[in-house]
Every structure is written in C-alpha cells, then in structure tokens.
Amino acid sequence: MKLRTKTWLAITAAAGLALGGFSPALAAGNAGPTEHTDMGVTGDAVMDHLQKISDISTSHSEEGFRALGTPGYEESVEYVEQTLEATGAFDVERQAFEVGDQAFGEVAVSVDGEKLQVTPASFTEGTEEPLTDLSVALPVDDDYSDLAGGQLGCEASDFDDSAEGALVLVARGSCAFGEKTQAATDAGAAAVVLYNNDTSAPDEALNATLGERVENGAPTVGVSYNEGNDLLTKIEGAVEGEPLLADFTLETEYTTSTTWNVIAETKAGDHDNVQMFGAHLDGVADGPGANDNGSGSAALLASAEALAEQPTEADNAIRFGWWAAEEVGLVGSTHYVESLNEAELSKVKSYMNFDMIGSDNYIVGTLDSDGSDVPIPDGVSVPEGSAELEKVFTDYFDTKDQPNVGTDFSGRSDYQAFIDNGIPSSGLFSGADGTKTPEEADMFGGTVGDKHDTNYHQPTDTIENVSRESLDIFSPAIAYAVHTLAYDLRDAPAPTDPPSTPPTDSPTETPTETPTDAPGERSLSIDPTTIDQADFVGERGVQVAAAGCTPDATATMTVEPQNGAIETFEQTATADADSVAKFGVRGLDESKAATYVGTYEVTVDCEGGDPLSGSFEVLAADSDGPGAGDGGGELPRTGNEALPLVISAGALIVLGVIMTMGARRRKA
C-alpha cells in the first residue's frame, strides 16, 4: 500500500549558529550565491553524454538496444555510475529489483477477411492457438456512435448473450482498460478490441495497458479511432443473422528480469531536506531511444557534474534518480518511492521529471500543475507546492523571452508515484505522440499536424534526429532548476564607494628596501565571556578579535560547543592593516535560545604566531552568574559603520524558506 503524506515545499532544519564576520572580503568570497544560475550547462554538454548513451544503445541493437533486461541497459547504468563517482560529490547507489516483462510474437487480427492494424495491450493474455471464425459483438449499454457515452463495456452487465465466445469491440473511456477486459471476460468474450476515442488524432494507435494481468482474461488489443469507428460501422450494418466473422492470434510470453535504478545524492546539503530530480534511463526494444529518454538522462548527468563544480556546497541535498522499467509501466520510479518508509519519504520535499527534451518537432512544455493551460484530468492529485515548482521554469523562460506552454499534468511519466504520495512535482517535456497545432508552430516552429516527436518509439529515434535547438533551450533550464533548489540565496555585499580621485599611473612613493613592521603583540579578545541566552540570540552576540596576525592574511576561527547540542563550526576572516582579524558568533533562532546554553571553546589560527585560544559561556535565562543579562557593550566596527553583519555560509542552517507563489506569465 502506498504511503500518503502531505508535504510542503519548505526548507526546514534544527536551530543553528551564525558566525558574523566584519570583513568585506569575507562577504564576497564565502557567503554563497546571491543569484541563481544555469551553472554554465549547455546543449553541447548534454550532447556529450547523450552521444555516450546512444553509442551504448546502438552497440546492442541486436539485443534490444537499452530496453528492460538487455545488456545495453546494464552498460548504460554503469556509465551513469562511473560519471557520477568521478565527480567525488555524490553517494551513488544501484537499487536492484525484479520486474516482470512481456514479449510478443505473432499478433494478427482480421474481420471479414480484412486485416486490422492492432497494438497488443500490456499485461494481456495470449491465445493458446489461433482463434478463428469468431462472431463480432458490441456492448449493449448504449449507442456510442456520437462519442457521448455508452458502448464502454465497464461491467459484465453491459454485454448480452452475443458476447459469449465473440470478439467484442469496446470504446475507450469512463473506466480503466483493465476493467473493460475483466468485464468482457466475465461476459464470456473470447477476445477484445479496444478503440481510441481521440477524434483529434484519428489515426493514432491505442497503446493500452491493463495495469496488471487479468487471470484467464480475454486477449486484448488496441486500435485507432478510425480503425475502431470503421469496424463499428460494419458491425452495425451487418445483416441480421449474418454476423461478421473474425480471426484472432496473439502470442505472448511473460518473463522476469533483474534491473536497476541509479540513485545519487550530494554528500553536502541538508539530508532531511531533499530536492529530487529524475529521468528514466531505459528505452524500447524497437530503437536506440536517443530522445526517449537518453536526452533527459544526459541532461541530469550534465547538471550533476556542474553542481559538483560549484564554488560553494549546496544548502539542500540534491538527489538524482535514473529510473528503470519506465517503458513497461513506470515500474522503477514506483518501486523506488514505495521502498521508502514514511520517515524517508517525508524528507523528499520536491520532485522534477525530465522525459524527452530533444523532440524533432518540439514544444517547450512545462508540466501544467496549476491547470492554467491544460485542465487537470479527473482523479489526478496535485500536491501543494507543485505550481511553485512549475513557476521555477516559467520564470526562467520569461527571463530568456522563451515561449512555453503547459502540458498535461496527467501522471503519464515517472512523477506519478511522487504525486500519489503527496510530493510536489513538476518537470519539462518537449513532446511525444501529441500533434503540433498551428499555435504551437507559431511559438516554436516546426510542422503543423506532425507529431511532436516523429520518431517516438521508432528505430529512427537516433541521436541524428534529436533536435539540437531543443536541447539548447531545455539543458540550461534544467540546470537552473537544480541550482535553484540546491541553494538558498544570500544578500549581496553592499557596494563600496568609488575612490574620490582616479588612481595615478605611477607609485606615490618609492618602495622602501626594508620590510614592513612585523605583526603586533598576539592576543585574543572575547567580548563578553559570559552572555545571557536572550542576548546571544540578539543582534550583538559575542565578538572575537585576534590581534597579532599578518595583515591581509586569512585567519580561521574554530568554535567547539561543549553542550552536545551544537556542532563544531569554522569561519574565516582577513586580518586588517592593524593585524586584527574580527569575528562574531550569535544564535539564529530565538525560539530555541535554550539550546545554546553551555560553554564554547574558541581557537583562532593565523599567520604571525601560535594559535590563540579562549572561551565564552552562554547562560540560562534564570542564571544569576557573572555577566548574566549583560550584552557586553557596543559591538566593535570596522571602518564603515554601516557595514552589515555578514552571515557565514559554513555555519548557517536555514530555518525556513517557502517558495513564493506568484502570477504565472506565459509568452506567446
């Protein structure tokens, strides 16, 4: 049974300490990012990985390319693992599991001697031997020729005695395909043809899935709207007493394969606050799957490498997933989510999915979690926070003047298991078997009336047919989303005033031949040495000054809390011209002031002599010991009295950030 827990797109952590330094150089160099970035990821970087994945797939063309249970898939898993491990920034895990698979042999259906273009349904049973001279019947629940309702075959009572031993034609709609096959089986039908009800794509094949095997179920195939509607017309026009006759053969075999998801999580970041990104790595056996979904898999690899190269560590843990067995029913991602216990599931705060980003007749699509472009289908849950995730992409595209459209938030890809468990989700999609509209052609170019990916699930889904233009649009957008969820932005340092006079071309004085003065006497000042817990979480805190450091050299302060509640942390600062390096320590969370009570050992190491050490104590609110309630006087300042307290990235634990909702803008 799937766990269902409500989670918010919020970043939360326990109380922490903040170090306040007073050096402009510290603010510029160590405070973390002040704006989000695409980390320099380009379509070329993604194409490099896609080429490797494509080469692996095509080298196993005789063995099913990169499909479930093939050597090509296992080799692709190894490539992903090696790429991630080479960065040194991730803990990489291969998650093994068993999955049932289905292979088809001969599939042939003809009615009145005329062959139908059919697609076998996933999880269907087969025929032990060819079925011949079957009568052809319809459900009798209602007339469905106007597609308004009826002939849906959702219950056995929707059929009459004509279904016994017959091939029944059933329209798509109202209930699941598996329910239709079960109802027809219960009514005694020998075989089932499901036909599509999408009049906007009348020749589109129906790739139906029964969801699971129907015990002793009637063999089931799908056909397009045109095929089904033509057959419906023939059945209704048949002369009474002279029914149409059909032949039906469906050969299938069920197998069990071991396969793997690949999971990688940053070593850095808050592991109770996980932001997750995923793409399926498997493909179909009919082609190399360069776009579906080598493209999404390659984009995650490029983004992971770029994240590993960032100058500061992520605030929030980023977890990447490469899913197995998506093509046989979203099996890998579903297995992963269901393998998490409730505590682990609650740590996953968001999920972003990337399934095809290089379609040759592409659109720039976001999963429309707010329903502003495409209504949310009935029965689909949209966890709170999903609209804010989509807005990460739409806002990014707005800054690039890039048109974009919302696409179905229907659960047709690997985000399904996440939304079923209350995890906010979004993602990007360049299109699959949908048809390009005139409006989409105006925004993105391409050919009206053609599928968004004309090579979808075909042998022609090769790297040569991947749109480079589409990759160039999607690749930096994905990397930008990774950076956005990995980092909490810091305030930019205040600008300094320009010099009052332009610099001279020559030195103002001739350099002396003697060295400058050595650093002054070494000492460590801690003010105050005892402080009330209420004052410790105030703006003043404790000020630390190390004298006798070499000017312009970097000094490192290490604070070792002795109360067992707070972890050891460090801060760096640059010694000023007077040989003094200044630091500040204070508590961040007033509501947890009691957490900070205890003794803190302080050590400052800088050029110019041995390390300096001292200590201070934070007293409980009801203490009457020395210094209780004494804020320690005015804080020391450097030259600019307006320079604000700078928060060190090394010790800052963000206490709560909720992504802001805003009006969504679309560009046409």
TrEMBL record:
Molecular-function GO terms, alphabetical: metalloexopeptidase activity
Keywords: Membrane, Signal, Transmembrane, Transmembrane helix
Positions with biased composition (Low complexity): 506-518
Cross-referenced InterPro entries: M28_fam, PA_dom_sf, PA_domain, Peptidase_M28
Keyword flag Signal: yes
Biased composition (Pro residues): 495-505
Region annotated Disordered, chain positions: 490-526
Signal sequence bounds: 1-27
Residue ranges occupied by any Peptidase M28 domain in the UniProt entry: 261-481
PA domain span: 150-231
SUPFAM superfamilies per record: PA domain, Zn-dependent exopeptidases
Ranges annotated as spanning the membrane: 642-663
Signal is among the record's keywords: yes
Entry-linked Gene3D superfamilies: 3.50.30.30, Zn peptidases
An annotated GO BP: proteolysis
Protein's recorded name: M20/M25/M40 family metallo-hydrolase
